[in-house]
Write a structure and sequence with these properties.
Blueprint (H helix, E strand, L loop, with lengths): L1 H18 L5 H20 L21 H12 L13 H11 L2 H11 L4 H16 L13 H10 L2 H6 L3 E3 L2 E3 L2 H21 L6 H20 L5 H9 L1
Antiparallel strand pairs: 1-2
Helix pairs in contact: 1-2, 2-9, 3-6, 4-6, 5-6, 9-10, 10-11
């Protein structure tokens, strides 16, 4: 872990120089290290993040799914907070922008290819990383409680990366989405929420907070199951 943190300090220092900014690389590296520890803890735990949702990351040493899930989660880990050295409030948006502007996505794709991932797997991993970078703290947006799920869903659906992930397409004047991809999206959003909550040294009631956010994801899952794969019906179901 110490060697990883030292490498992260160098990464953030280089990123700060490229952006022409000063940054507390040590603080960012420590935060990232805590998140890596949380990721490993989740991968060792047999307890699901949210009951009934897909787990994107298999237990350590189990499942071929890890061949794509692990590169995805680590790709997110090492890129998601680069923008926070510029501005904490808009750090996620800056990080997402740099994935394209600094060709970080291309670098990640090359790494994934070296790991034996085919083109489809690489593209899926990259779009997953991009949407998780953008929505890394989706659970902190809290409008009125009754409108929370609808607000979160509309925010996600407005993102082109999410649309690509869900395979949103128009056919006969109806917008459709892929149900399996939606379930996968909910699993990833639950995962990133758990990583963020468990790595934050501040909040004490992590389990209680996680449960509340899982209820939102479960509500979205139920709405999707009743939507007949139609985006408009999905939105209507969430409003109920």
């Amino acid at each position: 872990m110490d060697e990883i943190e030292e490498g992260l300090v160098r990464l953030f220092d280089e990123a700060a120089r490229a952006a022409g900014q000063e940054a507390d690389a040590g603080s960012l590296a420590r935060r990232t290290r805590r998140k890596l520890a949380a990721i490993l803890d989740l991968a060792r735990s047999e307890e699901p993040v949210c009951e009934g949702l897909d787990e994107p990351l298999p237990l350590l040493g189990q499942g071929a799914q890890g061949a794509t899930a692990w590169p995805t989660c680590l790709g997110w880990l090492f890129t998601h907070n680069l923008g926070h050295m510029i501005d904490e409030a808009s750090g996620a948006q800056i990080s997402r922008s740099w994935l394209d502007e600094w060709l970080l996505g291309k670098i990640l794709a090359g790494t994934f290819q070296d790991l034996g991932m085919d083109q489809g797997m690489r593209q899926r991993a990259l779009v997953t990383i991009k949407l998780l970078v953008t929505h890394q703290r989706w659970f902190e947006v809290q409008p009125a409680a009754e409108a929370w799920a609808y607000h979160i869903l509309t925010t996600w659906l407005a993102d082109r990366d999410v649309q690509q992930f869900l395979q949103v397409n128009r056919y006969q004047d109806v917008l459709w989405f892929n149900q399996e991809s939606f379930d996968e999206l909910l699993g990833w959003m639950g995962w990133v929420m758990a990583v963020q909550l468990r790595s934050d040294p501040g909040p004490a009631a992590v389990a209680q907070a996680q449960r509340a956010h899982c209820e939102i994801l479960e509500r979205l899952q139920q709405a999707a199951q009743a939507s007949e794969f139609q985006v408009e019906k999905l939105l209507d179901e969430v409003k109920k």
